[in-house]
Design brief:
Structural class: mainly alpha
Shape: elongated
Radius of gyration: 15 Å
Distance between the termini: 36 Å
Number of domains: 1
CATH topology: de novo design (two linked rop proteins)
CATH superfamily: 23S rRNA-intervening sequence
Helix content: over 70%
Order of helices and strands: HHHH
Number of helices: 4
CATH class: Mainly Alpha
Strand content: under 5%
Number of strands: 0
Largest sheet: none
CATH architecture: Up-down Bundle
C-alpha cells in the first residue's frame, strides 16, 4: 500500500511515509522489549510499541476518511491494527500488574 501511495500526490506520499514509519516502529520496539534489561524496560518498550500501533491505526483511518484508499483495500488492515493495539494493551497491563 505504501508503494502505491508513494506514487500518488504529495498528500498520499506524506501519509504513506507516516504509516511506514509508525508501522515499522511497532516491530522494532517489540524486538527491543524482548531484549529488555528489566521488567520496567520491557514495559516501557511495549508501551511505545502500543503507541506506535495506535498511530498506525490513525493513519489507516485517515487514508480511509480521505478516500485515498478504497475501503475494500484497507478494511482488513484496520481490523488487524485494532487487534494489535488490543494485544499490546493486554501485554502492557499484564506487565504492569507484575504477571510478566
Amino acid at each position: 500500500m505504501c508503494q502505491f501511495l508513494d506514487k500518488q500526490n504529495r498528500v498520499s506520499r506524506t501519509l504513506a511515509s507516516q504509516l511506514l514509519r509508525s508501522g515499522t516502529s511497532v516491530g522494532a520496539n517489540i524486538e527491543e522489549a524482548q531484549a529488555g534489561h528489566s521488567k520496567a524496560d520491557f514495559t516501557a518498550k511495549m508501551s511505545i510499541a502500543r503507541k506506535e500501533a495506535r498511530e498506525s491505526h490513525y493513519w489507516l483511518r485517515l487514508l480511509l476518511a480521505t478516500e485515498l484508499v478504497p475501503e475494500f483495500e484497507i478494511s482488513e488492515l484496520l481490523n488487524e491494527s485494532e487487534e494489535l493495539v488490543k494485544i499490546l494493551t493486554s501485554i502492557v497491563k499484564t506487565s504492569q500488574a507484575g504477571k510478566h
